Structures are given as structure tokens and as C-alpha cells.
Amino acid sequence: MVNTRGNLTIGLKPSPGAPPVEWLVSGPPVAYDAALAVMTARAEAIARGEAAELVWLLEHPALYTAGTSARPAELIEARFPVHMTGRGGQFTYHGPGQRVGYVMLDLKRRAPDVRRFVATIEQWLIDALAAFNVRGERRDDRVGVWVRRPDRGDGFEDKIAAIGVRVRHWVTLHGFALNIEPDLSHFSGIVPCGVTDPRYGVTSLADLGLTVSTTEVDAALRAAFEALFGATVDAQTVPSTENSSSRRRSATSFGPASR
Predict the structure, then answer these.
(1) How far apart are CA 197 and CA 151, in angstroms?
(2) Rounded to the nearest 5 degrees, what angle is found at the Cα of 122, between the Cα atoms of 192 and 112?
(3) pLDDT tens, position by position, 144-155
(4) Are 167 and 190 in contact (CB under 8 A)?
(5) Residues of the chain whose pLDDT is less than 70?
(6) What are the residues facing 25 on neighbouring strands?
(7) CB 192, CB 161: distance < 8 Å
(8) CA 13 to chain centre
(9) CA angle, 48 then 69 then 120, to 5°
(10) Can you give the C-alpha Rg of the chain in angstroms?
(11) What pLDDT is stored for residue 165 in this prediction?
């Protein structure tokens, strides 16, 4: 198979003289609804030219999200709250031990090319993983970053990072989820990203035998980001999520699949 996605141009640096991207890291887990509200508001402000671009690294409490291509049968057991979301893709899991990155960039200032943006996100993660001697790879037919698992059999691969994005007014929303040390059994409540082939599973840095702190991962992500997207600067304003948090279970039309 010709890996056409592998032939895409990689890199999305802004024009010379553009301001750096703000870089924000949140410590305590952030409720999903709260993060979504903050991200949406920030993206709208970026589109209006009233705010700088932003990368926000955070962690969520255990939950499932359903992308625009999610199907009810892919929710096997709603073990955690299920959130509908406007990003692309199917079901995915977020939870402790996973680094979520929300990426709010203005593609008009860079290149209005969504496929190039997704490929560059993949390369960003691949380069960050290389800092820990992990060989992440992209696939032509499966978005995300994959690790070969010859120890499990010929052709076996596990996903270590999921990607799901949305673009409004050429400003990007959502981003990626990189598995550092989550409870991988939590993925069993869904068909992760709609992938049903038994050769393809889910892995993490810990599952690969690596002990890596979130701080170390964040540093690797920032260095790899700047090489592909340009300079960053620490964010001066921390988004408030206190008034956006939802204590109720998110409404969803999906129920557990009959099995």
C-alpha cells in the first residue's frame, strides 16, 4: 500500500514575526465540560484576532468521548461518563495517567490544510516519543501514533496516542491523548477509535516498560512542538474552569451495545 499520508508536507510554522504560541499546563484533573467550554471560547477569540494561539496540556477524570463518527455499537459498557463532542473520530477514553493536549492554532496564519495539520500532530508525537527511545509510527489507514508489537505476533500493533481534531473558522480545537500510565483496562468499555482488528490494541509508556513522569513527557512535547510549529511562551492567563464544571452525567443518545 502506498502510504499517501506519509507523503504529506510536515510542519506548520507561522510567518516570520508572528507571536509565539502560549503554552499552558494544568495540574489537577479538569472536568471535560469545563475544558470544552474554555477551549471553545479561546478558539473563538483566536478567530477574532483577540487572543494568542494556545496549547493546553491537562488530564481528565475517567470518561469516554464520542466523536462525530462514533456508532452506538462501539460503546460496549458505559463504565464512565460519556461525553458527546464535535471532534472527528469515534470513541476514545480519557483518564488519569494520560496526557491530553488541546491545540488551538490559527491555520490561516500557517497553512489552511487540515490533512497537513493532522500529519504534523502525528509527527509531533512521534518526535516526542523518540526522546524516550520509543518508535512511534503513522499509518495510512489509521489516524494516530502506533507502536509495533512483534512480541505479540506478526503484524500486531498498539496505539499509544489518539488524535481527534475539529476546525472552525480555520482555528483548530481538540487535539491528542498520549498514554503515559493509564489503566488500560478502562479502554475495554469501548471500541477505541473504531478499530476492531484483533491485531491492534492500546498501549502506554508504562506498558512498554518505561517509567516516565508527566513532567518529562511535557518537556519532550514542548521541544518537539517548537521544532514543527514554532516558538512557545508560558501562558500568562490561566483559564478558569470553576463555573463551567458539570457535576451531572453528560447526556448522550448512546447506550451499552447488546452483546
Answers:
(1) 17
(2) 110
(3) 999 999 999 999
(4) no
(5) 1-6, 237-259
(6) 57
(7) no
(8) 20
(9) 55
(10) 18
(11) 93
Contact 78, 61 (CB under 8 A): no
151 phi, psi to nearest 5 deg: -65, -20
Residue 241 has a pLDDT of 57
pLDDT at residue 191, rounded to an integer: 87
Rounded to whole angstroms, how far apart are CA atoms 148 and 23?
31
* Sequence-separated (6 or more) residues with CB below 8 Å from residue 254: 66, 70, 72, 75, 78, 82
* Positions marked catalytic: 193
SS3 38: helix
Tell me the three cell numbers of residue 86: 464535535
Length of the chain: 259
Residue range 234-258, pLDDT digits in tens = 997 656 654 343 333 333 333 333 2
Note the pLDDT of residue 5. Answer: 57
Query: Is the four-CA dihedral 119, 124, 129, 132 of positive or negative sign?
Result: positive
3-state secondary structure at position 168: strand
What local confidence, expressed as pLDDT, does residue 233 receive? 97
- pTM (two decimals): 0.89
Q: Please state, in angstroms and rounded to a whole number, the distance separating the CA atoms of residues 231 and 149.
A: 35
The phi and psi torsions of 201 (rounded to 5 degrees) equal -125, -155
With beta carbons less than 8 A apart as the criterion, state whether 149 and 203 touch. yes
Distance CA 125, CA 115 (A): 16
C-alpha cell at 251: 447526556
Angle between helices 114-130 and 214-229 (to 10 degrees): 130
* Cβ-based neighbour number of residue 15 at 10 Å: 8
Let me know: does 34 contact 66? Beta carbons within 8 Å. Answer: no
